[in-house]
Amino acid sequence: MGMSSSSAHRRRTGGAVAAAVLGLLAAAGGPALAATDASSPGRSPDKDASASVHGAGSVPQGISRLAQGTGRDIAITVDDGPDPTWTPQVLRVLRQNHVKATFCLVGTRARKYPELVREIAADGHQLCDHSVDHDETMDHKPVAYQRDQILGGKAMIEAAVPGVAVNYYRAPGGAFTPESRAIAAENGMRPLGWSVDPKDWSRPGLPAIVSAVEDKLPARPTVLFHDGGGDRSQTVAALEQYLPWLRSHSYTFTFPARTAP
Questions:
Q1: Is 135 considered catalytic here?
Q2: In angstroms, how far is CA 220 from the centroid of its own chain?
Q3: Global confidence as pTM
């Protein structure tokens, strides 16, 4: 998600990033770019959309907010990394609790820290494309730009860990559009949202984070945490407390729904 005050510097859209994206797309044989954005100029209501429209193959275009499975299943997702300080600490806590999570990786950071992407994949976590450089205004931009951000981010992650699937796409700040959802689904990635947001990115304090994730959990929740975008010490502490609490309440850890509903 990444709504921290540090997100602004990750919104660079200058020539260097654009050139890198286009080069990656060319190398990956990416599809041709659309010329214009067919969506309205305002922020899309898709930010809260939940309709599931099937795209290419079995990957729906609808935004996934449920964990796989039934009953007391939960999906932990971690955004905005990889980060050399906080990602290893999050990975340590996940290992200690025998939890597999889904890491939503920013492309430029995956390119900068490929060894962390490999460590995430080696631990059995799922990979999610979180765009090239975390531009939270993507839903105001042309479809060509959205495509560059989505496929460029995916290519950067894949370059860090060849042969490992990137199964999800999460728009920065939830800034989805119908077009971006279709691009993701057509390229094998389920659009990924969340159902529980403790706003750990704002560093509200450990009690506030823990209260938000323990209180009145919806069915099969997808919970949003962060390992990038700033000081994530509160997130690490919250995970140390939260993951054992979930096990004590008979939750089973899984990944977000990918092909249904």
A1: no
A2: 18
A3: 0.81
